[in-house]
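Before we proceed, please read the two lines closing this message. Let me know whether the structure tokens fit the sequence:

…
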Amino acid sequence: MKKKTIYIILACVFAALAVAAAVVVIVNNSRENAGKKLEDLRDSIKQYDTADTAALDTKDDLIDTEKDSETDTGSGSDTAVKDPFDTAPDTNSEKDTETGESETSVKLPSTNDQLLDFESLRTINPEICGWLEIDGTLVDYPVLQSATNDEKYLTTAYNGSYYIGGSLFTQATYNSSDFNDPVTVIYGHTMPDGTLFGQLQSVYTNSWTFSSCSDIKLYVPGEVRHYKVFAAVPYSNIHIMYSYDFSQEYWYNLFFKHVLDTRTLGANFDTESTPEFSDRVLILSTCLNEDSTKRFLVMAVLVDDLDS
């Protein structure tokens, strides 16, 4: 009787192990398939936007020619509103959440950058509002924004399917989808395999790769924007966009002063590229590896703003 019981227990254990192994295989295959689909998307979409042929011809002509010749309204409080990796921020804000792109003329890329075909991208998902790329890293992904659910892309892939890693995203409650706000925060998970924002900390805590990967490209309809990284810091998990009103010079300067005063292991700065009020800044936000209750932030200023 005892032997029979032991055999039953062993059979149950082996069955449980088999099920667990099958689940691991399914999860890994799902992750690999998601990654492969995203790679295929990159390859198919990274082409000149046919709608901008005239602009590209003009760019070629230019290249050939060159060869020839304040009210205090910010909150600034310690209100316990955390960023989206902890709890959902207040989505009842009266702040403008319009998702349409601003009406801007086609801007020629400053290098031989290719414009992306956003018409094709938006047939995959109309909530794709940009594409982020950092040479020398794995960061080469679409950026999404939901008009109705700020936390949607925590666990939703770029094509709308469920994915534990989610997508890179901005929050409509706090940022417009055209990336023209004074400060735009792009959120992404720290994936163990280095995908999404999984490489940010290892790249930007190293002083050499901090410099060599300082150019961040953001593709938006009809335009490629270049940003220069000026800071990478471990930071608290406060909800930055809720806590600071960056439309006010006082709060804008106060935040970046706090950042630049950071003295901690893993912080790096380029003090020659620090922003001034009216410069547009991207903040890439992800979990800190050593402490998931904190964040690792990479900050970059739009080069055109620095040059103006």
About this structure: Confidence is low (pLDDT under 50) at residues 48-79, 87-111.
